[in-house]
TrEMBL record:
Main subcellular location: membrane
Family designation: Belongs to the cytochrome P450 family.
GO terms for cellular component: membrane
Ligand binding (heme): 158
Name of the molecule in the record: CYTOCHROME P450 83B1
Coiled-coil regions listed: none
Top-level taxonomic group: Eukaryota
Keywords of the record: Heme, Iron, Membrane, Metal-binding, Monooxygenase, Oxidoreductase, Transmembrane, Transmembrane helix
Keyword flag Zinc: no
PANTHER family in UniProt: CYTOCHROME P450 71B11-RELATED, CYTOCHROME P450 83B1
Cell compartments where the protein resides: Membrane
Length: 223
C-alpha cells in the first residue's frame, strides 16, 4: 500500500484522530481538538513534529523530552501526590528545640513526603491531580523547594535523582509515542483508582493498572 507522509503543515491543522493512530485528517476541527485536552495535544504535536524531522530514528530521545513541558508537569504532579518513598529515609536529630519542645539528640525522625505534597498551605486543591499547577512554575524536586520532596532533600537526597527522572520521563514519552493506550473492554475511566495505595517503604497501587497497548500507526504512514 502506498505510504502517506504527513507534512509539517498538516500538523498545524490536524485534530485528534491522527494522533490516535487513525488515518484520518480533519482541517476544521481545531477548536474541538484543542479545547479539552489542550496541553496533551500540544505535547503530542511536539512529538509528531519531531517524528517528521530529518534524522529521526523512531524513538523519543532526551532532547525531545526536554521540550515536553506538560509531560514533565504530569510526572511532577504524580510524584507530588504519590511519592515513591512516602517517608523518605529516617533521620536522627541533633539536640534542638522546636516550637518550645526540647528534642533530645539522636531522636529518630520520619519526614512524611506524602503529607508534605498534600499540604493545603502549600498547594491549592492539594488532592486534585492537576499538572497545570507546574506550568510556568519554578517549583522543582531537586531538594530546594520543600513543598515537593519526592527525592528527599539535604545531604541524603537521592543521588540517583537525575537518572531516575530521566528514566521515568523517557519511558513515559516512548510508551505514549509508540502505543495507543486503551482500557480493557467494559472498563471506564471512573473505574481507574489512582488514589489507593498499599502501605510500605515504597508506594504500590492497591489496584493494578490494566491498560492495553496498541502499536501506534505512526503519523499517517500506512503500509
Ligand atoms: C524515580 C526514581 C527514584 C526515586 C523517586 C527515588 C527516591 C529516593 C528517595 C525519596 C530517597 C531518600 C532521600 C531522603 O531521605 O532525603 C532516595 C535515596 C537514595 N536513592 Fe533514590 N530514587 C530514585 C532513583 C534512584 C536511582 C536511579 C538510584 C541509583 C542509581 C538511586 C539511589 C539512591 C540511594 C543510594 C539513596 C540513599 C542516599 C543516602 O541515604 O545517602 N535512586 N531515593
Amino acid at each position: 500500500m502506498a505510504k502517506q507522509i504527513l507534512k509539517t503543515h498538516d500538523l498545524e491543522f490536524c485534530t485528534g484522530p491522527v494522533f490516535t493512530g487513525q488515518q484520518k485528517l480533519s482541517y476544521n476541527g481545531l477548536d474541538l481538538a484543542f479545547s479539552r485536552y489542550d496541553a496533551y495535544w500540544r505535547e503530542m504535536r511536539k512529538i509528531c513534529l519531531w517524528i517528521l524531522s530529518p534524522g529521526n530514528k523512531g524513538y523519543v530521545n532526551e532532547n525531545v523530552v526536554e521540550q515536553l513541558s506538560y509531560l514533565k508537569a504530569v510526572v511532577k504532579e504524580t510524584m507530588r501526590l504519590q511519592p515513591t518513598a512516602p517517608l523518605l529515609i529516617p533521620r536522627e536529630t541533633t539536640k534542638c528545640k522546636i516550637d518550645g519542645y526540647e528534642i533530645p539528640a539522636k531522636t529518630l525522625v520520619y519526614v512524611n513526603a506524602w503529607v508534605v505534597g498534600r499540604d493545603s498551605e502549600a498547594w491549592e486543591n492539594p488532592n486534585e491531580f492537576n499538572p497545570d499547577r507546574f506550568l510556568g512554575s519554578s517549583i522543582d524536586f531537586k531538594g530546594q523547594d520543600f513543598e515537593l520532596i519526592p527525592f528527599g532533600s539535604g545531604r541524603r537526597i537521592c543521588p540517583g535523582l537525575d537518572m531516575g527522572i530521566a528514566t521515568v520521563e523517557l519511558s513515559l514519552a516512548n510508551l505514549l509515542h509508540k502505543f495507543d493506550w486503551e482500557m480493557p473492554a467494559g472498563m471506564r475511566r471512573e473505574d481507574i483508582d489512582i488514589d489507593h495505595v498499599l502501605p510500605g517503604i515504597t508506594t504500590h497501587r492497591r489496584d493494578p493498572l490494566c491498560l492495553m497497548p496498541k502499536p501506534y500507526a505512526v503519523m499517517g504512514n500506512s503500509e
